[in-house]
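Trying the structure run again after the queue cleared.
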Amino acid sequence: MNAHADGWPSDETTVLPPRLHVALSPTDRAVAYVQQHYRHPALSLTDVARAAGVSRFHLARLLRRLTRRSFLEHLHALRVGDARRLLARSTLSVKEIAAAVGYNDATQFCRHFRRAQGMSPGAYRRLSHARIADEEQSLPTLRA
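Done. C-alpha cells:
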C-alpha cells in the first residue's frame, strides 16, 4: 500500500474491497471515499480522483453535476454538518471540534461554519442546548 509521508493512505484499495471497487462507478467510488475520509485535513481532489480512478478534472465535473457544488464546497458542507452534531451533543471545545472534523485551523473552521450556518459555532451550541432544554421541559412527566 502506498502512503503519503504523513501516513495518509493513497491506494484506492484501502477504501473498498477490490470486487466492490470495480462494480462501482467513479462517482460512487469518489463519494464513498469522501464520506470515509472527509475528517482528514489533507484530503484533496487529487486523492479522491486517484481513489475513483479518474482525472481530477473529470472528477470535479462529475461531483459538480452530482452535488451542484465544487469539491471544496461539498467537503466543507460535510465537515460543518458533522460539527453541528458535535456542537449540539458534546462538550468538546470549538478548537477540538474543528480538529475532529478535519480543520487544522479553528479560525478557518469558524469562518466556514458561520458562512454555512449564519452564526458562530459558539452561538450554534448555545441555541442547540437551549432547544434541548426546552424539549426536555416540555416532555410530559409520568405520575404514579
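Residues 2 and 11 are 6 Å apart (CA to CA). Worth checking whether this holds up in the mutant runs.
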